[in-house]
Amino acid sequence: MSEPTGAAEQGIRFPRMTIQFCTQCKWMLRAAYFAQELLSTFSTSLGEVSLQPSTGGAFIVTIHHQPDQAQQTVSTVLWDRKAEGGFPETKELKRRVRDVIEPGRHLGHVDGHDRPAGSEHAAARKDDAAPAAGDALADKPCRDCN
């Protein structure tokens, strides 16, 4: 899931987020909404959130970061619509970003009152989560893309 992408380029602030979305499926507004939510929650903790137009039914959220001030940049896919079976709930995406960039941070109402420590809880939440609205079509190929 994580892979090195090379040395940090000068002038680019990390961590960076990319939201790759299918233009044929008309998911730009959804991608922009997630970008706005992430920027509102994490503010200056994120160096950048970018939208990347794509095709083929893609909706992939990736974080590019430098763990422990390392010179090497690591890219981690936080959400892939095809692999996860649909779109993320906003609070789940925020939790996954938090687990990478600020693991000790409490996200207020997003976390609730009983947040267990560690990112291993994120996997348990994924299994227990009810499907989000619009996920009924997640396993079907996009008609516009195919």
From TrEMBL:
<dbReference type="Pfam" id="PF10262">
    <property type="entry name" value="Rdx"/>
</dbReference>
<protein>
    <submittedName>
        <fullName>Selenoprotein domain-containing protein</fullName>
    </submittedName>
</protein>
<feature type="compositionally biased region" description="Basic and acidic residues">
    <location>
        <begin position="137"/>
        <end position="146"/>
    </location>
</feature>
<dbReference type="InterPro" id="IPR011893">
    <property type="entry name" value="Selenoprotein_Rdx-typ"/>
</dbReference>
<keyword id="KW-0676">Redox-active center</keyword>
<feature type="compositionally biased region" description="Basic and acidic residues">
    <location>
        <begin position="104"/>
        <end position="129"/>
    </location>
</feature>
<dbReference type="InterPro" id="IPR036249">
    <property type="entry name" value="Thioredoxin-like_sf"/>
</dbReference>
<feature type="region of interest" description="Disordered">
    <location>
        <begin position="104"/>
        <end position="146"/>
    </location>
</feature>
